Amino acid sequence: MRGCPEARPTRRRGPPDASRETRAGARVFMNSRKVDPPVLADGEAGGEAIDEAPADSRLRALLDSAVDAIITINSKGIIQEVNPAVERIFGYSPEELRGQNLSILMPSPMRERHDGFISSYLRTGNKGVIGTGREVVALKKDGSCFHAHLTVSEFHSRGRHEFLGVVRDISAIKRAEASSRRLAAVVESSDDAIITKSLDGTITSWNESAERLFGYTADEAIGAKSSSLVPVDRLGEEAQILDRLAAGERIDHFETVRVRRNGTQLDVSVTVSPLHDDREAVVGASSIVRDISERKKLERMQAEFVSNVSHELRTPLTAIRGALGLVAGGVTGELTEETREYIDIALTNSERLIRIVNDILDIEKIESGKMEFQMRTVALDKVIDDALVANASFAASHETELVLESDVPAGDIFVDIDRFAQVMANLISNAAKFSPPHSPVELAAEKRGNWVRVSVRDYGPGIPMEFRGKLFERFAQADGSSRRRKGGTGLGLSISKAITERMRGRIGFEDAHGGGSRFYLDIPLLAPVCADGALSDRPRVLVCEEDLDAARVLRRLLEDNGNAVDLSPTIERARRLLDCHRYAAVLLDLKLGDGRGSELVREMRQRKATRLTPVVAVMASDGRLGELGLSISDIIYKPIDEQHLLEVVERAIEIGHTQPAPRLLHVEDDQGLRRVVERVMPASWIFVGVEDLAGATEALDEQSFDVVLLDLALPDGSGEDLLDRVGNAKVVIFSASEAPQEMAERVSAALVKSRTELNDVRQTIMTLLHNSLSNDTATH
User: Region labeled Disordered — which residues (predicted)?
Assistant: First the structure.
């Protein structure tokens, strides 16, 4: 035991001294005991005996379970008792601390001044920290310091001054405060406007950059609606953003337009992140708004410059080449040998100049992301034949022959036909330029799994080892004089790489066996349209998706679930597939390479063979209602949940196999609303609209319906009168006022017009039918 003799209080045995203090501060460490009950004047016991042992035990348990360190010291600063939390906070065991001066828990210079504080208080009565709380720096056993909150109180035990200290570790709080200060400093020093808002669009914070950018002070902006910063024609965009945030989605770097206080508009880039409360619920959003007006202005100037250069260079060059071509073709009469030689030189160099101009303009489009692609499904053998024909004369001009090395595999590819031809021309022209005279340039196409490799092989000197790493960089050219004499900008391979990757392909090269180089591009290969016509009885699904990588993931999921799957990135290929096969369901992205998926659905509903084929639409989460009036069975929103996808497709297949066209009776006196609802529902459904009770009664007597969509307020009575006549139909109330509780319990759903979008009406009806079908299937 370290320290002074009085480091621990004397433990008294036997009855307690009547003068002993009983205040909580003095009794904390006393032994349990029983106290006889008081006796009243008439000699009767004043009550049951009071057992103080449980009270002391509870007090001890309370101290032992406290999260704060509790320490008692005597008037000399010597530690008397501590609770278990001290060891967790300071690292010392109780035995190590008892008898030690409290200054062991203090860093310098407070350690040296501690005893002086106590003696000063005892001498002058100046309490200082006693009876109050303050933040201090405390010292752990391992020598590390931490921030703590200290509360000190005084008590008397056996006529002596003693003190009780409660120490709370506030390191985490101080770190959070420091982090908040740093974050606040970052927010205030940011060049970007940083704004927070609640889910209803109310602005809750506004930094200095926001003031500079928009012209509103923080006092003016906070509490206002963020829609005040949005142009009128973009208010729908703001509503969509808030909806996506409520679902927890982060929206990265979308470019839009906002409005300053003075009414002027500016181009901005915005990143919006959801804000969560302690329970991870989304309660608001944080927006980082960057002014990109100067960049947009430069982009417009650059686009105008490129457009002018394109016009001013290409127009005269086209005229020059055309005129030279006419002269060389003999339009002006027979040419002398010498004149023909000069004309040929001029014609060759004009074509070379045009290629250079085209390369320069293409590389600018690639860098700005403005190179447009018109993706189409095309037969592989056709684009290979076109490449052979288009480049044969160029190869011949370099004394080489362009040959097809092997048969071309059957199948389609999904490419921009003109851009694909541009890549082939670049590869073939390079091969021809570097081939020895009278050697062949060989084209080949071979199937590699779901890809096709199209290659161009030459018999030239090959690619220098030191140049290979830079081969596809801009302006890359080997330094050899023989290569420099071949000319060119060094842009062709860089452009070819960018084009190939935009078409979801890969480009590369390898040394060819026997000398020379083989350049190749790998392109996703689509299966022949009418192959595999007699598949097994597995349900066949057509996946229409422009992104072939995503389409292959969908195909794998559906095939693993027992389906046969065909892929189509375009409407044109989908038409051909629908001519060849009968599909149990179609999974359709509403944006395809050559048009809108809605076109395909309309065509399907006009053809007898596909009129009832279930179509599951795939669309972005912010897709508009205009697409929902199509004849579709269900909708899947991106990003796609795999399990949900499988459930929806299975449900669509089941409906297509077992159900006739659903029948819907809409009882509504507003003719315009009936027409709109009819358009929103799938076109393959049988839709009957009536305006009153009499018409509804007649319709129900003549035929059965799957769903009755019912307005309660009708010209000749209440829609409630029909509830006993609908049979097994699902009833959905769609009325201007809420249905009474007892009525709502009798129907499948009750919707209020002012609170319900037509898309929700449609989804409610379709969900009821799907659930009904699932229950019927499970029962049978």
Answer: 1-31
